[in-house]
Amino acid sequence: MAMKHIEVLTLFPQLLQPFLGEGVLGRALRKGLLEVSLVNFRDQGLGRHRVVDDVPYGGGAGMVLRPEPIFAAVRERIARHGDQGRRTRTVLLTPQGRPFDQGTARAWAEADEALLLLSGRYEGFDERIRTALVDEERSLGDFVLLGGEVAAMAIIEAVARLLPGVLGNPDSMAEESFALGLLEYPHYTRPAEFEGMRVPEVLVSGHHAEIRRWRDAQALERTRARRPELLHGDAPGTGENQSRAGRRETPSRAGPAGAPRTAATRRKPGTAPAARKPAGSPGRKAKQAPRAGEQRAIGSKTR
Ligand SMILES: C[S@@+](CC[C@H](N)C(=O)[O-])C[C@H]1O[C@@H](n2cnc3c(N)ncnc32)[C@H](O)[C@@H]1O
Fold first, then answer.
1. From the CB of 143, is ligand 1 less than 6 Å away?
2. What contacts 258, CB < 8 A, 6 or more positions away?
3. Considering only the top CATH level, what class is 4-168+279-302?
4. pLDDT per residue over 20-31, tens digit each?
């Protein structure tokens, strides 16, 4: 699999810079496991003042992002990826989009196309951007943010942690919530007793088969209690957003007699990701220097 390219087109690239320099994501960027570029719409702004917005036709509150700078910025990025033999997926971030979920994250992590995330501000984008420029629209949830940058950051994290080599221990991915169509079982650590609350006996028993059974039962029980729709296929990674990997893990198909897929029936942790060519392998295209208007985020550096 080729290295993953993600771009955020925004009016506030500086909001993402510190985020991209820290923790697991910062390390992954420095190791070249993925690349994130920040593109400022204002570089394509109109006139001396680099105008990107205007008042809405028909009146009303707030400003609307004009089509010219947005079309120009996106087309420039698509052409650049095209020159490097790479397809793109252009995603408009909007509360009106389909919900982004774990299935979407898996599909995007697996796809060999650059992801262009269009982050709005003010009242959002001129409608012609939605109808004629983007491939799809995605929402982070049923709430309204000031801008799409936080949504972009959430998507970058969700996609990046699924890329080969990004997580130190890929097992954590195999068991976590949504990977098997269930919420994950509860975790405990030391001390064994805290303010009168004891860790369940089975977890300190050292009996691995019993621990496995307990965890599977807990995962099922809490999914039934908190998110019963996950057990009926109406779930992240099981509905229309579902990736190939997600379909393999649909609870109703995975276990015997329609039973949810649990530890006993799941694939060996990490087998699917390991089948992919590791990122950063020889043969991937050489990096090109960023152009004007593009910042390439490698660690916390802006180049
Ligand atoms: C204040 S919002 C605009 C909301 C728009 N007027 C509406 O009612 O649908 C400004 C920008 O924030 C981003 N945004 C806000 N809420 C979002 C959400 N739930 N998911 C993804 N992006 C969101 C979008 O990029 C949007 O263009």
1. yes
2. 252
3. alpha beta
4. 999 999 999 999
Could you list the beta-strand ranges (E) of the chain.
4-10, 34-40, 53-54, 64-65, 87-99, 113-118, 136-139, 193-194, 197-198, 294-298, 301-302
Ligand 1 atom at minimal distance to the Cα of residue 124 = 27
Q: pLDDT by residue (tens digit) across 75-107?
A: 999 999 999 999 999 999 999 999 999 999 999
Q: Say if CB 21 and CB 128 are below 8 A apart.
A: no
- What spacing in Å lies between the alpha carbon of 173 and ligand 1's midpoint? 30
Are the folds of 4-168+279-302 and 171-269 the same?
no
Q: For 32-41, 177-186, 216-225, 287-296, which range has the lowest pLDDT when averaged over its residues?
A: 287-296
C-alpha 15 to ligand 1 mean position (Å):
16
Q: What is residue 110's DSSP assignment?
A: H
pLDDT tens-digit series, residues 150-204: 999 999 999 999 999 999 887 777 778 898 889 999 999 999 999 999 999 999 9
According to the CATH classification, is domain 171-269 in 1.10.1270.20?
yes
Ordered by start, the domain boundaries in the chain are 4-168+279-302, 171-269
